[in-house]
Amino acid sequence: MKNVAILGSTGSVGSSSLEVLRANKNEFEVKLLVANKNYESLIKQYREFRPSYIYLHDKKARQELLSTLDKSELGSSLITGEDELNHLLSSDELDIVVAAIVGIAGLNSVTNAVKSGKHILLANKESYIVAGEILNKLSNESGATIFPIDSEHSAIHQCLSGIKDQKSISKLILTGSGGPFLDRDINTFNEITPEEAISHPVWNMGPKISVDSSTMMNKCLEIIEARWLFNNKNIEVLIHPEGIVHSLVEFVDKSLVAQLSVPDMKIPIAYGLGYPSKIDSAASSLNFETFSNLSFRHPDFHKFPSLNLARQCIEEGGNSPIVINAVNEVSVDAFLKGKIGYLDIYNLISEILDKTDIKVVKKVEDIFEQDKQSRAMAMELIGTY
User: Could you tell me the fold of the domain covering 2-148?
Assistant: First the structure.
């Protein structure tokens, strides 16, 4: 029996993780559930899975939980501070950590889990984007294993299973649906509304990542993430609207290996939880008659200029991924609130990246400082748009 912590348990990835764990109760025990402020959902999860510990980042939500749950029912399960949470993440009580807290806010918890040698299922791609080199070094020192549980990187991991010689790999190919504006006239992009941008044609996701998909910034970030996860700079993107082929690897002999499944986050989650074995994902099987026609095309870099930023980041390295990630988060939030237009998201990122001095990042503290500076620059510029 393996003890599992889920950081971000009330979000979409956290909820999907609990579905997989529900289907494999004899192999895993939910030990810790962490949420931001959705105390009502956390209470429901607590009552079903009875973890030893729960934590809410938001103080007000913590008080609401305390006033809702009877003390006799809650016992000593509620963690009251970040220090206690980080101590638990570093302890031997946990075997597996599902890191699904959105944004750079999840970096500290991921870092602590890596330092303590945990088996980590990483949905928090931002951590690897801004701190990939640091996390790789820490995992080599601690023996931690890091499994990506977004569909594309999980697919690459499966395609590379058993491949020991890096020289045999020609390139990694990340697929993407192209988002809701794949066939939309670029001349109308300035008219795109938040409601249109959060409507994804394949995946059911939150508003921020849905906007990232529409701008293809998600692919930019995934290229940067893949560079550190798989130690490979030769990464391409292929548009695949049906969302069945999740990624491919081309080898030097020109053969290709691809991973196919229905678009369901539970599949990469189950892969990460069970590895090297396969476990029940609670997902549906792929019906080939339904998906008898699969289409592919190369991305339009003029229409989706965010993809060019990935190449720039890989070449420049240093603090450039931190800048892109921070400004994108601020810009998307401003767009969703109606403060800037759709095209301004990319314009802000590009402008601030050009104004930033690129330098080497050696410590996690440096990452947070650069993140803070970039966000401040973005907020200041938003006021001028």
Answer: Rossmann fold (3.40.50)
Taking the domains of the chain in order of start, what are their residue ranges? 2-148, 154-263+288-382
CA–CA dist 344, 240 (Å, integer): 26
Report helix angle 59-68 to 39-49, nearest 10: 50
In 3-state terms, what secondary structure has residue 251?
strand
Q: Summarize pLDDT for 278-308 with one digit per residue, the tens.
A: 999 999 999 988 888 899 999 999 999 999 9
Task: Please enumerate in sequence order all residues whose Cβ is within 8 A of that of 128, keeping only pairs 6 or more positions apart, or say none.
Answer: 122, 135, 146, 148, 225, 228, 229
How distant is the alpha carbon of residue 385 from its chain centre?
29
Residue with tokens 């549906």: 284
For residue 223, pLDDT over 80 is answered with: yes
Instruction: For residue 194, give the amino acid letter.
Output: P
| Residue 202 confidence class, pLDDT cut points 50, 70, 90 | low
CB 371 within 8 Å of CB 108: no
Q: What is the mean pLDDT of residues 248-265?
A: 97
| Of 36, 74, 28, 71, the residue nearest 55 (C-alpha) | 36
Distance between CA atoms of residues 142 and 217, nearest Å: 32
Which residues, in sequence order, are bridge partners of residue 257? Answer: 249
- As a whole number of Å, the end-to-end CA separation of the chain is 54
Query: Tokens 């969302």 label which residue?
Result: 243
Contacts of 282 (CB under 8 A, 6+ apart): 19, 20, 22, 23, 266, 270
- Per DSSP, helices labelled H in 163-305 are 194-197, 207-215, 217-229, 266-274
For 14-36, the pLDDT digits (tens) are 999 999 999 999 999 999 999 99
One-character DSSP codes across 278-324: -----PPPP-TTTT-----B---TTT-THHHHHHHHHHH-TTHHHHH
Decide the pairing of beta strands 145-148 and 119-122. Answer: parallel
> Using the 8-state DSSP alphabet, how is residue 193 labeled?
-
User: Are the CB atoms for 241 and 179 separated by under 8 Å?
Assistant: no
Measured distance CA(282)–CA(216) in Å, rounded = 29
The CATH class that applies to domain 154-263+288-382 reads: mainly alpha
